[in-house]
Design brief:
By secondary structure, the chain is α/β, with parallel strands linked by helices. The chain folds into 2 domains: 4-273, TIM Barrel; 327-399, Orthogonal Bundle (Arc Repressor Mutant, subunit A). It has 15 helices and 16 strands. It has a 9-stranded mixed beta sheet with strand order 9-10-8-7-6-5-4-1-11, with helices on both faces.
Length: 399
Amino acid sequence: MTVAANLSPHAPAAQDGASDPGFALYVHWPFCLAKCPYCDFNSHVRSTAIDEDRYVAAFRAEIRHRAEIAPGRIVRSIFFGGGTPSLMRPQTVQAIIDAIAEAWSVMPGAEITLEANPTSVEAGRFRGYRAAGVNRLSIGVQALNDADLKFLGRRHNVEEALAALKIAASIFSRHSFDLIYARPGQSLEAWRAELAQALDLAGEHLSLYQLTIEPDTMFERLWKAGKLAVPDADLGRELFDATQEITQAHGMPAYEVSNHARPGAESQHNLVYWRYGEYAGIGPGAHGRLITPAGRRAQSAEKHPEMWLTQVESEGHGLIENELLTAEEQGDEFLLMGLRLTEGIDPERFKALSGRTLDERQISTLTADGFLVADEAGRVRVTPLGFPLLDSVVADLAA
């Protein structure tokens, strides 16, 4: 069975997606060729070949398990993340998509995204992924100069990145790529020039992440040892503001703190997360939020790939957490996710989830300070002034 022939290249716009975010699948492939020094994701390097057939069988078991918990759903999007999913064989990707289609109904035109690295070997697989059913590619470029790519631990150079983008554009009508900015030694002028180049290369979507020092990474160890200096807060703010200004002028405004798209080209998968929809996490370390008769459950799987594999083979699933969320926890998660979006949140949905209303005094104070705005429809949104202080704004509003 294959669903590839039934997938149109564009996912349909969600009907009233903010109030009905839909159901999505996240599939985690945990393996990389090398661990990047800034990365705190659940990724692992192996010196021996991965038994993909064995992992496919385990993914199938996990999918069946989640379908028993959340039957009858209509899948709006599927996202292959990692790790480096483009290290998978195309037939592995197709087998997982087919297993999902056997467990649930897949919406015609559902968005199916795969993260890829732009090494020449992986780029050569792009056509195979398209035939398997993938209709959107997300490419981890990260920088557009070779010195910074080397600093970031990337295994490709700019020439390979540009070639991968060209190949992706010829195969996929929808594709995106990532860049990291606020890199050590990066000036505002240099970032402006690099971002202008990126926008000339971009199709419909860009993810632009400000470098942060994450716990338990090589960069954190270097930073603590005084061997790594990142831009100070003032320059970081200037870089963020320039990013918003330049992308807006180019017709690719931010629809989320770090994600920019032409109108209608937003990542449907990520919108399910940020609108606090329902999603199943499949694979080592994957997280999920499934709605059951008892309530919304927070799920997470064993992180270690081989331990996850053994658990799935013995128990039929890899979950190590499967807890009911309280109303307060749901309200907090809804705020944390929804206020990342420029469309903001509906206070009535917050009330339905949490059982309480937002504090009007806090809203008034944050509005007076210029961090929040309430539109005519009653939605509460973070302003451009508030986005760099998003964590504080969310904490104040949730208090």
